[in-house]
Design brief:
The protein is an alpha+beta fold. 33% of the residues lie in helices and 13% in strands. The strands form four sheets. It has a six-stranded antiparallel β-sheet, with helices on one face. Strands 7-9-10 form a three-stranded antiparallel β-sheet. The protein has a three-stranded antiparallel β-sheet with strand order 12-13-14, with no helix packed on it. The C terminus is likely disordered.
Length: 477
C-alpha cells in the first residue's frame, strides 16, 4: 500500500478510513475502508498512479461506475459513491464483499458439481440480462470477475465485477468509440469470442454468451476449452478449432448439458445461443430448484427488452406441477372439448334420462291396451305425477296427463248388454244389484323400459280410464 494512492489509516472525503488492501490488478487496486458515519465496511477502488494520468483509462474507470450504478441486480457489486483524490485520481465506493472469486474456487476444488456450476452461471446471467437490456456489454467476463459471496441465509450469491471495459451498444458519443479502437485487444484472451479477437468494437451481447460458455466449460471440466502458448496460437484455435468434447474430460456429464455449452461456443454468432435468456432456459433443468427464480427473471427481462424468442418458454418446474394438468388433458380429451365446467355434461345426462323415462311410460301404456274392454264404475281419481329413471343422477319429474282409474265390473258374456258407466255424481243412486269391488289406489311405478313379454302380469279385470274432465269417450289400456 506504500506505493499505492492511499495509505492505511487515511480518511477520504471525511468519511472513509482506509484499512487494508483487498486486491490489485494491472491498472487498479481495491482496499477495504470503514464508513465513519454509517459505521459499515465498504470497498474503495483506485487507479494505480501510472494510469491516473491516462485519459482513456480514466474514462473507462468512470464508465465502470456509470454502468454498475445503472444495474440494480443483486448480482452486480453496487457502486454507492464516486470521488477524486487530492491529486486528481478518481475512486469508486462499492459494497464490501466477503468470499472468493470463481477462479479461486476452481483452483481449490478442480471441478464443481453440476448443480453448483449451473447455478453460478444462471446468477451471472441474471446480472448480464439486466445489463444487456440496458445496452451494456461486459466484454471481460471470466472466473476472476465472478465473485462468490453468501446471503444472510447462507445461500450462494454470485456478483459480477469490473465493468471497466464494458461497451454501451448504440452509443453515439465519440468518446465511447475512441476508447475501443479496432487494434486494441480488450478482455482476457482465454474467454474472448472469435469476433472479439478480430475487433473489440464490433461485438454485441452474444460475445458475453460465448464467455459464459467458456466459464461453464471450465467449471465443469477444470480446464478452458481453448489454450495456447501464445496469444497468436490461442487466437488461431479459438477462431478455427473445435473444443475438446467435455465428456472426454468428464464422462458423467449429461449429453444435453454438453450440447448447451457447445452451442454457446459456436464460432458464428448467428448459430450461437442468442441471449442469456435462451441460455438460462436451456440450463434450467440442470440447476437446483432454487435457481429457477433466476431463469424466470432473465427470461422476463429479455422479453421486456424485446430480445426474447420462442425458446424462452419455461419447462414445468416439477412432476408435481404437471400431474393435475395431465389429468385435466385426459379428461378433456375424453369429452372431446376444452373443459369449461360440468354443467353442460349434467344437462345432457338429464335430457337423456327424461327421454328414457318418457319412452318407458309410453311403452307401458301400449302394453296395457291388450286387455279386453269392460264397463266400470267411477271412484275417486288417482293421479300419476312423475316417473323416475334409474339412469338419472337425481329424480327427474316427468309430467303425465292426469287419469282416473275406475274399478271394473265382472266380465260379462258377449251377448249381455253392458250398461253405460256411472258418473261419480250418480254413484249414490246406482242400482244395488250391480256389484262393485273396492278400488285400491294405484300409482304408476318407475319404468326403465318395456318389460319383456315373459314377465307380463296375468290378466286382470279390464278397467276404463276416464279423464278428470268427465269426458264420455272411453280409453282402454
Amino acid at each position: 500500500m506504500d506505493d499505492g494512492p492511499v495509505r492505511e489509516g487515511d480518511v477520504l472525503a471525511g468519511k472513509y478510513r482506509v484499512e487494508r488492501v483487498l486486491g490489485a490488478g494491472g491498472m487498479g487496486v481495491v482496499v477495504a475502508a470503514w464508513h465513519l458515519q454509517l459505521e459499515e465496511r465498504v470497498a474503495l477502488k483506485f487507479l494505480l498512479p501510472g494510469f491516473a494520468g491516462n485519459s482513456e483509462v480514466v474514462a473507462r474507470f468512470a464508465r465502470e461506475a456509470r454502468s454498475a450504478a445503472k444495474i440494480k441486480s443483486e448480482h452486480v457489486a453496487r457502486v454507492t459513491d464516486v470521488g477524486t483524490l487530492d491529486g486528481g485520481a478518481p475512486y469508486l465506493v462499492m459494497e464490501f464483499l466477503s468470499g472468493v472469486d470463481l477462479a479461486a474456487v476452481i483452483k481449490q476444488r478442480g471441478v464443481l458439481a453440476i448443480e453448483d456450476a449451473v447455478e453460478y452461471v444462471l446468477q451471472a446471467s441474471e446480472a448480464l440480462g439486466e445489463a444487456h437490456s440496458l445496452g451494456i456489454v461486459h466484454r471481460d467476463l471470466k472466473p476472476g470477475n465472478l465473485f462468490l459471496a453468501k446471503r444472510h441465509d447462507g445461500s450462494p450469491c454470485v456478483k459480477v465485477l469490473d465493468f471497466g471495459i464494458s461497451k454501451v451498444v448504440g452509443a453515439t458519443g465519440s468518446s465511447d468509440h475512441a476508447m475501443t479502437a479496432t487494434h486494441a485487444m480488450l478482455g482476457s484472451p482465454l474467454y474472448m469470442s472469435p469476433e472479439q479477437m478480430l475487433s473489440a468494437k464490433n461485438v454485441d451481447h452474444r460475445s458475453d454468451v460465448w464467455a459464459l460458455g467458456v466459464i461453464l466449460y471450465e467449471l465443469l471440466t477444470g480446464t478452458p476449452p481453448f489454450q495456447g502458448d501464445s496469444i497468436a496460437e490461442l487466437a488461431l484455435r479459438v477462431t478455427r478449432e473445435s473444443p475438446r468434447p467435455m465428456r472426454d474430460l468428464r464422462p458423467d456429464l449429461p449429453p444435453a448439458l454438453e450440447r448447451v455449452v457447445l452451442r454457446c461456443l459456436e464460432k458464428d454468432p448467428g448459430k450461437r445461443v442468442q441471449n442469456v435468456g435462451e441460455l438460462a432456459v436451456a440450463l434450467a433443468e440442470f440447476g437446483p430448484k432454487r435457481a429457477r427464480i433466476s431463469v424466470e427473471r432473465v427470461s422476463r427481462m429479455m422479453r421486456d427488452a424485446g430480445m426474447s424468442a420462442s425458446q424462452l418458454a419455461l419447462p414445468p418446474s416439477s412432476d408435481a406441477d404437471t400431474e393435475p394438468q395431465a389429468a385435466s388433458a385426459v379428461t378433456d380429451g375424453a369429452w372431446g372439448k376444452t373443459r369449461t365446467g360440468s354443467g353442460s355434461s349434467r344437462s345432457w345426462v338429464t335430457m337423456g334420462a327424461v327421454a328414457v323415462a318418457a319412452a318407458g311410460a309410453v311403452a307401458w301404456m301400449l302394453l296395457r291396451t291388450e286387455t279386453p274392454p269392460a264397463s266400470t264404475v267411477s271412484e275417486p281419481a288417482v293421479t300419476a305425477t312423475s316417473v323416475e329413471s334409474p339412469a338419472a343422477a337425481a329424480p327427474v319429474p316427468v309430467p303425465v296427463p292426469a287419469v282416473v282409474v275406475e274399478p271394473s265390473l265382472p266380465p260379462v258374456s258377449s251377448g249381455d248388454r253392458v250398461s253405460p258407466p256411472i258418473r261419480p255424481a250418480e254413484a249414490s243412486s246406482a242400482p244395488s244389484e250391480i256389484p262393485r269391488r273396492a278400488a285400491k289406489p294405484r300409482t304408476l311405478p318407475s319404468v326403465p323400459g318395456p318389460p319383456p313379454a315373459a314377465s307380463a302380469p296375468p290378466k286382470k279385470p279390464p278397467v276404463v280410464v276416464r279423464s278428470t274432465e268427465d269426458s264420455d269417450l272411453e280409453g282402454r289400456f
